[in-house]
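User: I'm new to structure prediction. If I give you an amino acid sequence, what do you actually give back? Let's try with this one:
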Amino acid sequence: MKKKLYIIVIVLLVINSILFIMDSKKDEKVKAENFLSKFKTTKNIESDSLSITNDIFNIIDEEFLKKDFSKRWIYNKRTDSLWYKRIKVPNTIGMARYNRFVQTLFRKYKVDLEKVSENEPAKKLKFYFNVNDSLSGVLELRLVSGLNEKIKFNGRMAIVIDDLGDQWGPEYIQGLLEFPKPITLSIFPDHWASKRTAKAAKEKGKEVMIHLPMEPLKGSVEKEKIKITTDMDRITIDSMITQALKRIPEAKGLNNHMGSKATSSYEVMDMFFDIYKDKGMFFVDSKTTPKSYCSLIAEHYGVPIFECELFLDNSDKEEDIEEMFRKATDHISNGADILVIGHARLNTYKTLLRMVTEVYPEIDYVFASQLILK
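Assistant: Good question. You get back a string of structure tokens that encode the predicted 3D arrangement of the chain. For your 374 residues, that looks like this:
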């Protein structure tokens, strides 16, 4: 009897927790809807412009204060026709991150943003917005050094697409070259379409990496002309790296294709990074084995490195790819940057396009180099 009672109590506590979370999200949604309702009903009433602007500024304050920010750095001024807000913010976060945060906030509440002005030398960022079709408010962010405030934004996401260079004609290859968000394309150094793909990617503003084959524990890279294997000496590894960079001069970085055996060999990776350190490029560890020495040795030689957090398309099913993408968004919601890897496949392209344009357009998508070269 006591055991049954204990189980009932646990179930009730779980249900109560779920209802609390649902109510919190519902309250936030209702708040946004109430604001939008007020905005719509007073759209043509001149006298309410300042009142609506004040509401917008209150929302801005709340959003900043959610991030453990102090009120003492917020300054407000009102004239007969304009609200002006200035906020001092720590310069430990770049101007682009603040810009994206505020613009995302304005889009959420359907605020009509007229223009954004960036003054990099003065470390100022200004947002001019309209209410009732006229300029009603100005928000200025001043990036200041020495502030102890700790503002935490959602993390950024870098999407790397591997295995390019084998195909050119498929529509999804062209789609990746025209992808609407920042994306890093990792290209085999010596396949038939490699040079063409790298050149087109750079012309279309995509970031290029070399997808360098490395010896796996299972499988083989013997068919590859340019590769890293565990039986190579230093001179051969140097030759392979040199050839790869010569074939893909557009590359800013490199990641391993396969490589579970090579990257888990301390001796091989030590030779590799000792040579690679002078190339002025970054490295992405595809993390095909938990025994990889890449990060340890790369950091020893001062090579900028970032590890892949998850593969998006171990399954080719769109629903599975979408589930993995959602896992990645959970990661960045906690404030951490994440690098994910997908492959040059139709379902991967279709799912990614939908996720970045329809489901999660607000995420800060960046090139791999932007996560690594801080």
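You can read the tokens as a compact description of the fold. Here is one thing that stands out. The chain is about 40% helix and 20% strand.
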